[in-house]
Amino acid sequence: MKYMYDGLGILVLSLGISLTIQSGLGTSPFDALLVGLSEEVGLTVGSWEVLISVILLVCNAILTRKKPMLLGLVTAFLTGIGIDLWLFVVRNTIFLNTLLSKLICFGIGLVLIGLGTAIYLQTTFASTPIDHLTLIIRDLSKRTILFSRTLVYALFFVLAIIFKGPIGIGTLLTVCLGGMILHLLMPFVERYFLKM
């Protein structure tokens, strides 16, 4: 059952990422970095998800002074496949012509990212290295998940600018609201899992 919820969380998360990319308003800083690398260097967005995750896996091991959480690569790999599949679907089915439609697409995507992340983090199977980094910073700083997520987003925002990722109003909204949405959704998802 745990694996089913983990898969559901990744499916929802990757759909949310794809919708924010499709909106054309800018994506989360991490996803902007992935798109920027995809356009500047080559490979798919999902492939860069896995490659960057390998780097973060090493960084996380150094921060925690523990062995790398290799299961996190499984989650990153599945997320990468999900992003590429959902991007194929949304690029061929969702056409956004107005600012309102782009805002709606982005807003739904942002909420789905928070919901998907909250679901799969509750399964405690294996978080992606970026989400594990968020939890490490939360634990090391003894602050909220809102603080740590915002700090991680700020770091990748700078990297996305360097690699010419799609930075826009959506990126700023993600930096300001992404951590808050995850912070708000985590208790609801946690309560649901406790009932199970």
UniProtKB/TrEMBL annotation:
Entry annotated with the keyword Transmembrane: yes
InterPro entries (UniProt xref): YczE/YyaS-like
Keyword Mitochondrion part of the UniProt annotation: no
Record-annotated membrane-spanning stretches: 42-63, 70-89, 101-123, 144-163, 169-189
Pfam families: DUF6198 (PF19700)
PANTHER family documented for this protein: INTEGRAL MEMBRANE PROTEIN (PTHR40078:SF1), INTEGRAL MEMBRANE PROTEIN-RELATED (PTHR40078)
Protein name, UniProt field: YitT family protein
